[in-house]
Specification:
homodimer, about 230 residues, alpha+beta, six-stranded antiparallel β-sheet, two-stranded antiparallel sheet, about 40% helix, DNA-binding
Chain lengths: ~230, ~230
DNA sequence: CCGCAATATTAGGTTCACATAACTTTTTTG
DNA sequence: CAAAAAAGTTATGTGAACCTAATATTGCGG
């Protein structure tokens, strides 16, 4: 008996599906080399695995073109995303993890937990809708909210905005954000924007408003809602 | 990067070590076929793996003789046992699992959780000393209490005893025990014992004392302390 | 104490998931 | 638009961990 989880897929299979899902959320198609980068493996290995996933009916692959999840593939990926995000919420709210350390733990556990455990955790948490980084949690039946957010880098000068979502991959980046006072729900005005991919200056509201400078790249990865505009 | 956990050992390695540890607790040496049975794999596969574990310095193997854990091997095994048992306590006390369903979940999670998570769970539980089946939990530094218990089948006629420990492997057996009212801490008198590996009859104390008949084999797997005698 | 049953090991084979090297296709660009 | 660069694929190989079949060792009963 080979090591397979709940879904009947190997850990590796699951990791590929989740990675492809996440890449599709950005571009239209997931590229071989992007998958390879994300999983830190050689592109040739991806070609091989993609062929297997394709034979399992989980992805569609037009050689030299790109990979797309099928309906079944997306379902599996979303199950894994649900596991990951529920775990993140559980570990932070019940076991004292910080938002910058929780990702790695969840990444390993997501392959080992049963559906039952995830649902028990979700229950104990009151069925949360967002993870500690603001990402929406897919429902049991594979629905996921498409957050309608604007990257900080695209918030117009002078607008007031709220930080709603950050990428959970990089713990150091998250620790840095905390040190700037940029937590989820932080409200701020955009007071300056340098051209040529320069930094954005914001003024955080609070009892003592303070200004912070955020580099372009970082500002690209911060999902914000603009005050006054309602968000779906 | 191959799939390895915290310890630097593969999941398979860990499973072997834990199995050998558990077999050694009974006999002196763990036999190849006993390991194979416990892990539901072919004896030939065990021979191969044992050689690898031996090269890693985790077991000592005299061909055709048997396997014994080295100090390092025992340390790894006890770490895994600690993980397993802390998980069992956590899942039962914090997430509503029953003692008959918790083993399988813990069995998968024990390979995925980090040391940190286990210690956080232990902390949240107040550093429990026993798992939900009464088995002692090894300490962080690999000490484990040797419970000084008597199998129900060996409790003398007329004695009053308390159920202190049951094997956690078989969920059905545990459900059956529950249905008899035999939970941990249950106190009873031995009122009859049939010879030739026959059943034991006990009278459970409680507001309404009731008699139960327990088969020989089952009675062998129940660890009891006899009332009046103190237990180490 | 010999031979057979039980137990264990070795030999050789499979699958999974990776790797490297060599080759092909696509895209970019001077 | 041709050549170089980038991206992707195929071929081939590795190691882990399993398998079956064949062989070796041990230990027990007659």
């Amino acid at each position: 008996m080979r090591t397979v989880s709940h879904s009947g897929l190997s850990r590796s299979n699951e990791d590929y599906l989740k990675t492809i899902y996440e890449l599709e959320s950005g571009d239209q198609q997931a590229q071989t080399s992007a998958i390879a980068d994300a999983l830190a493996i050689a592109p040739a290995s991806v070609s091989g695995m993609v062929k297997r996933l394709s034979e399992l009916g989980l992805v569609e692959h037009e050689p030299y073109r790109g990979v797309q999840l099928t309906r079944a593939g997306r379902r599996s990926a979303l199950k894994l995303v649900r596991r990951h995000r529920i775990l993140e919420v559980y570990l932070t709210s019940k076991l004292g993890y910080d938002w910058d350390s929780v990702h790695d733990e969840a990444e390993r556990l997501e392959h080992a937990v049963s559906d039952e455990l995830i649902e028990r955790m979700a229950m104990a948490l009151g069925n949360p809708r967002y993870d500690p980084h603001g990402a929406p949690i897919p429902s049991r039946d594979g629905e996921i909210e498409q957050p309608d957010l604007v990257a900080l880098v695209d918030v117009p000068l002078g607008e007031t905005a709220e930080l709603r979502m950050v990428n959970d991959r990089d713990g150091q980046r998250l620790r840095y954000l905390s040190s700037l006072g940029l937590r989820l729900g932080a409200v701020f005005d955009v007071v300056a924007r340098q051209p040529f991919r320069g930094p954005v200056t914001i003024r955080l509201s609070g009892s003592v408003p303070r200004e912070q400078i955020v580099g372009h790249e970082l500002a690209q990865s911060l999902g914000c809602s603009i005050r006054g505009q309602e968000v779906g």
